[in-house]
Amino acid sequence: MEIIEAEVIDSTHLELKSPLNAPKGSRIRISVSDSDEEWYKLSLQGLERAYGPDEPEYSVDMIKSINPDC
């Protein structure tokens, strides 16, 4: 998969920021995203995979020693 940024010229035209590596007549798929929202969703999905529903809740009272760098 290749990711190329583009500027919307109007509702049916894009201007690519770099050349597309595809021969003339190729069919491509375009995914439109609000980058901040998409990154937020992707981050959340990663956290959900890392911490399952059975993960215990940790309170501040459970801290044994404080890391001064945090």
Summarize the model shown.
With 70 residues, the chain is of the alpha+beta class. The protein has one helix at residues 35-50; strands at residues 6-10, 13-16.
Describe the fold and architecture.
With 70 residues, the protein is an alpha+beta fold. The protein is 23% helix and 13% strand. It has a two-stranded antiparallel sheet. The two termini are 38 Å apart.
Helix content: 10-25%
- Structural class, judged by helices and strands? alpha+beta
- What is the N-to-C order of secondary-structure elements (H for helix, E for strand)? EEH
What average pLDDT do the residues reach?
85
Task: List strands and helices in order, with pairings.
Layout: E1 6-10, E2 13-16, H1 35-50
Antiparallel strand pairs: 1-2
Any key phrases for this structure?
70 residues, alpha+beta, two-stranded antiparallel ribbon, 1 helix, 23% helix
